[in-house]
Design goal:
Elements lengths: L4 E9 L2 H12 L2 E2 L9 E4 L7 E5 L4 E9 L2 H13 L5 E2 L2 H7 L1 E8 L5 E8 L18 E2 L3 E2 L4 E5 L3 H12 L2 E6 L12 E5 L8 E4 L9 E6 L2 H13 L4 E8 L5 E7 L3 E7 L12 E3 L3 E4 L5
Parallel strand pairs: 1-4, 5-8, 11-14, 12-19, 15-18
Antiparallel strand pairs: 1-5, 2-3, 3-4, 6-7, 7-8, 9-10, 11-15, 12-13, 13-14, 16-17, 16-20, 17-18
């Protein structure tokens, strides 16, 4: 039993058009033509029908994280394991599954209250990705690595120990790094536990040991060249998007990136050169430094 990837995210945004404008004009994502009778808009970055669902909502932030299992058997085992451990699991209807472009899914919450959608059987439409700003492709996997998901997300987990056990023992993720970075005087104690799925990306999900008003600490999308990172920095500046971490390189996943604040208070890391790992020959690390250089934070 293991999670194949973090396949999609759902955001609640007061005016979805603001996030679509940011997603297409700054990130370089492509808007999908997929219709929705609930007013959602969809952004894609590869041959998946969407990676981000942007829904109208009064409360802005992350609504749900979609975790993909490779097949029905693995998915059913995860569902049964959660129920046996006393967690509520709600099966989605056929119409709800079709809206998500999946064969089947269930909804459940982790011990810190984050809503998850566990699914299998993503329906790909193979529409050619066409970035409005000219990005050739995002790093989401290929014929050698398989699907690696949209990137990664860091979720708030104030019930830290119970939430770690939930993801490792029940959901099927593995710990790859446990970071306790140095913090300014007076700042809350910070611990970030990084977790990998069943793909080579160094981490697909991470847990932050404090609450967060947006329901997500940050999300990450990855491109194939350093020039694309620089061009995204230029687009963010031109669009007056707040940069909340300067260019830098992380220690654990080698990502060279910068961070910006999107509509709805969702922080987005835009990066290049993320580490790919052979999990059969990896020893989880414990870290006290998050960055090799750069990344001056201004959250």
């Amino acid at each position: 039993m293991s999670v194949a990837s973090v396949g999609y995210l759902r955001f609640g945004i007061a005016d979805p058009s603001t996030w679509v404008e940011f997603g297409t004009g700054v990130l370089g994502l492509m808007e999908s033509s997929k219709p929705d009778d609930q007013g959602a808009r969809f952004l894609r970055m590869d041959d998946h029908p969407f990676r981000f669902m942007i829904e109208p909502a009064e409360k802005e932030g992350l609504t749900a994280t979609g975790l993909e299992y490779r097949g029905k058997d693995e998915w059913q085992l995860a569902c049964d394991t959660l129920v046996a451990a006393g967690h509520e699991v709600e099966r989605g209807s056929a119409d709800e599954a079709a809206r998500r472009c999946v064969t089947g899914f269930v909804s459940t919450r982790d011990p810190s209250g984050n809503l998850l959608e566990l699914y299998y059987g993503r329906a790909l439409d193979y529409v050619r990705f066409n970035s409005p700003v000219g990005i050739a492709s995002f790093v989401t996997g290929d014929e050698f690595t398989g699907d690696m998901g949209f990137g990664h997300a860091v979720l708030p987990a104030p019930n830290t120990y119970e939430t770690i056990d939930y993801y490792t023992d029940l959901i099927g993720l593995g710990i790859c790094d446990d970071l306790t970075p140095p913090m300014p005087e007076g700042a809350p104690h910070t611990r970030i536990v990084f977790m990998h799925a069943d793909n080579p990306r160094q981490h697909s999900l991470a847990l932050y040991n404090n609450p967060h008003p947006a329901g997500v600490v940050h999300i990450m999308v990855e491109v194939e060249t350093m020039d694309e990172v620089g061009l995204a920095m230029d687009r963010a500046k031109a669009a007056d998007i707040p940069v909340i971490a300067t260019l830098g390189r992380h220690v654990n996943d080698n990502m060279c990136s910068f961070y910006m604040m999107s509509p709805g208070g969702i922080a987005v890391e835009f990066g290049y050169d993320g580490l790919l790992v052979d999990w059969d020959n990896h020893t989880p690390t414990v870290s006290t430094e998050g960055d090799l250089w750069g990344h001056e934070y201004n959250f």
